[in-house]
Amino acid sequence: MNEINKLISGFFEPPIRDYIDKIPSGKQLRSRLICAIAKESDKRFLLSAIVETIHLASLLHDDIIDDAKTRRGAPAVFVTDGAKKAIMIGDIFYATAFSKLSAFDSAIAQIISEAVAKLSYGEFLDAELSKSFNTDRKKYENMIYLKTSALIEASCEAAAILAGKDRDRFRRFGALLGVAFQTIDDLLDITQDTATLGKPALNDLSEGKVTLPLIDYYHTADENEKAKALSFFKKKLKTNDAKRLRAALYKSGAIDKSRQYAAALLNEAKGLVENDEELLAAAESLISRIK
Amino acid sequence: MNEINKLISGFFEPPIRDYIDKIPSGKQLRSRLICAIAKESDKRFLLSAIVETIHLASLLHDDIIDDAKTRRGAPAVFVTDGAKKAIMIGDIFYATAFSKLSAFDSAIAQIISEAVAKLSYGEFLDAELSKSFNTDRKKYENMIYLKTSALIEASCEAAAILAGKDRDRFRRFGALLGVAFQTIDDLLDITQDTATLGKPALNDLSEGKVTLPLIDYYHTADENEKAKALSFFKKKLKTNDAKRLRAALYKSGAIDKSRQYAAALLNEAKGLVENDEELLAAAESLISRIK
After folding, report:
1. Would an 8 Å CB–CB cutoff place B18 in contact with chain A?
2. N or C: which end of chain B has fewer CB within 10 A?
3. Minimum distance, in Å, between the CA of residue B176 and any CA atom of chain A
4. B116 touches chain A (CB under 8 A)
């Protein structure tokens, strides 16, 4: 167990502590960025642990809201333990993370807590957008900025403050990386197969999430294709339908457009941290996922 | 609309703002205490608005967890708008309240955020205790301290810091008032009728909550009465059964015991604020509810 996971574990007593391992934590992108930006600060692990705890809390609640029954192939906590338990544990995780924030300057506490307010508002907008087939790119981009990017942006800015670095530059770096990260996630939902994803391919559309490639596809599609795409909204796609829709998305250029968009964001991000090998590597590792 | 409600309203844009009025806010006990303790501080209204926003967030989530379909006679948000919406709005309320806390000393931010961690852990323990007929008084007291008293305690301590007063004394005052407040709420569930309560009488037992008077009654009851009480656990009581159980609770002395307990807590609390008319009045107004 790494230093950060040890700290998160120390925030809680059993039985609350046991829930940490029930949530697949993923790549800990936020911690990697914090530790790379604030590598000389003793407090980088504590800040990372707080941000990861917030991230876990958001996953607990998001899975209920999205009715996402699996995460990285494992059943969601609301499935195994019930929605009430998932709400309560999420609240405990959020509140504990906030209480640990008071060990930091109020500027850092403010940046992180404002990001959580954005994140939860982004989750609200996501649910609102999912009510109908959204084709408004601006609305979608604003939502993913709030839901995914804001906490990554805040992590980078807070780490820069810890390290006495240029907070605006790292804030911008985090924001770019965050949007790129979500765009790549949206792409993978379309381009990867079920086994690799740990969830059904083209799952986003089934959940009512019309992501960037789907929005772009819709705007270039003819009336027949539009009707077809609309008919899949919030439906479980048959294998053949999924194959055909995937092929149409490739053919329309929508996949390429999103790939180029993500790559451009990542290139801009890399330009902001030119001399920092670790941060460049973090951006590169995201780029490699696009392929 | 008072100053505090105006501030809460200003924290949010529509459509989030609209949810404030959907949650009956009650007596705003926490704000009354903060404003009375820190009456000379310009920041008393902001601190009150933050604490009330936290309180609203906790109500949104608690009602889902307790499956409490009405609050003060009005349908709960999770009933009118769905559990997902209630989770999201609760998260937005919590996170916004935390982000506003950074306008205060880190000591105040820490006290309030630690109280929220206690509150959410108390909610977890409440749900755990409700799984079976709990007869352990200590466990129940610990749970209501966490769930109800901790935020009232923290409000008073934080207000004392704002006002440059003795924080330990006001912390103790708040803790006593909080436990008394919950004990009185537990009593009213038994002694008041449905119309006055805005919910069914003896509703706590139906929801699996074995409150102090019920615990005390259980320990003095004979085997028949014990079996009867157990048979009502998590059941909707018939009018006659409710009447009989209420009569038995009075007869056993359990009601009186809880009344005396609450009165003793309030008297101790009053002793801590002997010269403060407003705080004495707050304690008195709670005492008057016991009758």
Report:
1. no
2. C
3. 23
4. yes
